[in-house]
Amino acid sequence: MSANGLASTASRCYGDAMGWIPDVSVIPVHDVPLTRSDEENIAVAILPDTPFTSAAVGYVSPGAVQTPHYHDRPDDGDEIIYLYRGTFRLITDGRRSEPHDTARTGPVYVAVKAGTVASIENCGTEDVAFFAVFAPMFKPGEIRYVT
């Protein structure tokens, strides 16, 4: 059982001198509880942390815009976002990208530095789905919303 109560399929595959990657965990994302973040205007499934990263799967509803926000991280870091379904625009520091349609162009990789205001606008007819990884680990309270 992981820290957030999820059962995982773990199998011993290898270790190293530090002992920090001894197992591989397989967690079906559809088994992770989905919660609605009204403050951020997304639905999110928080995945189990690793020693150095945090990850989540998020969804932005059709016609919705994720609340503009940035991560106040004293140790700096990045948020890596892999957008793999839907049609969306990225909004960074008030600038809107051209629409990206993953059905036509394939998934999109985005790296956002700490302190950069960003959000996702769904301009399609299905949920925009994304996978986000935080390095170093996400810390509660680091999100600052910009209204």
UniProtKB/TrEMBL annotation:
Entry-linked InterPro entries: RmlC-like_jellyroll (IPR014710), RmlC_Cupin_sf (IPR011051)
SUPFAM superfamilies (UniProt xref): RmlC-like cupins
Superkingdom: Bacteria
Protein name: Oxalate decarboxylase/phosphoglucose isomerase-like protein (Cupin superfamily)
Native source species: Micromonospora vinacea
Lineage of origin: Bacteria, Bacillati, Actinomycetota, Actinomycetes, Micromonosporales
